[in-house]
Design a protein that fits this description.
The structure is a single chain. The protein contains 13 helices and no strands. The longest helix has 33 residues. Helices cover 69% and strands 0% of the residues. It is mainly alpha-helical. The chain has one domain: MetI-like (MetI-like fold, Orthogonal Bundle). The chain is globular and about 70 Å long.
Length: 273
């Protein structure tokens, strides 16, 4: 019993040490946001500033561009999550429960897309949206990334594990396929939806390359584009970069705190056949 307690204490101490190491970059970033500019990257390294200042945050508030980009990015990410869940779950339901011609070939085609890096189709995607006249619009930020092979695959694996007897009972009661999807499958999809929703939100929130290629209107700038503006060729405003990065990290941290229970549950079901 004593040996078990010692082992438990050691594991707890190890977990605390790993947690502190993981949090160190985040804490340093937050504290650097209230340092004078010359102390952010000072040598020798100093964790705490000699004097706490709020100039970096005040400049962000006064300029207005950063908080506007926060609002635009949040809108884009939220709409994208809603549409992504709808599109990917409907596709997953079709592949999991319906039989139709060439289903195996279409599923194989869908799986193949999971192995193609986004960077490999970046130029062709830009050419497509340019010819469609979507540049400098919210649609170019939202539409291209809605349907993804991984999300369809993940939700489909969950739907395959739902007992067919539930679906058959609904069909016997007179429900059609769409009603079965809406009233049976969607209410059971909370855990996979949280996993897909959180990953989709983070993808849109942290996106930089695609917005930088397709958006030149500063009113539609995403938050990562604005943060990149603070880094110049010869002189970078590291204090403002750290302050802005800290504020940009808050929504993602809150997201994990609110949905951590469902995220853990979603990780448990990720191995469903």
């Amino acid at each position: 019993m004593r040996k078990f307690k010692i082992k438990k204490v050691i594991l707890n101490l190890f977990g605390i040490a790993v947690g502190l190491i993981s949090l160190f970059p985040l804490l340093w970033m937050a504290i650097s946001g209230v340092k004078p500019e010359k102390e952010v990257l000072a040598v020798p390294f100093r964790f705490f500033p000699t004097k706490f200042v709020t100039d970096n945050y005040l400049k962000l508030i006064q300029e207005g561009m950063f908080f506007r980009s926060i609002a635009v990015t949040f809108f884009v990410a939220f709409v994208s999550v809603m549409l992504s869940l709808l599109i990917n779950s409907m596709s997953a339901y079709v592949f999991a429960r319906l039989e139709f011609p060439f289903k195996k070939y279409l599923w194989a085609y869908e799986i193949v897309t999971m192995f193609i890096p986004n960077i490999a189709i970046l130029i062709t995607s830009f050419v497509v949206v340019a010819k469609l006249g979507m540049l400098d619009s919210l649609s170019v930020l939202i539409v291209p990334g809605l349907a993804t092979g991984y999300n369809i695959f993940f939700i489909r694996q969950f739907y395959l594990n739902i007992p067919s007897s539930i679906e058959e009972a609904a069909l016997i009661d007179g429900a059609n396929r769409f009603q079965t999807y809406v009233h049976i499958f969607l209410p059971l999809s909370k855990s996979p939806f949280v996993i897909v929703g959180v990953s989709t939100f983070l993808g849109y929130w942290n996106s930089y390359i695609w917005p930088a290629m397709t958006i030149s209107n500063q009113k539609l700038f995403q938050v990562m584009q604005v943060i990149a503006l603070f880094k110049g060729t010869y002189a970078s405003q590291w204090g403002r970069i750290m302050a802005a990065s800290t504020l940009a990290a808050i929504p993602t941290i809150l997201l994990f705190l609110v949905f951590q229970k469902h995220i853990l549950q979603g990780i448990k079901i990720s191995g469903i056949k």
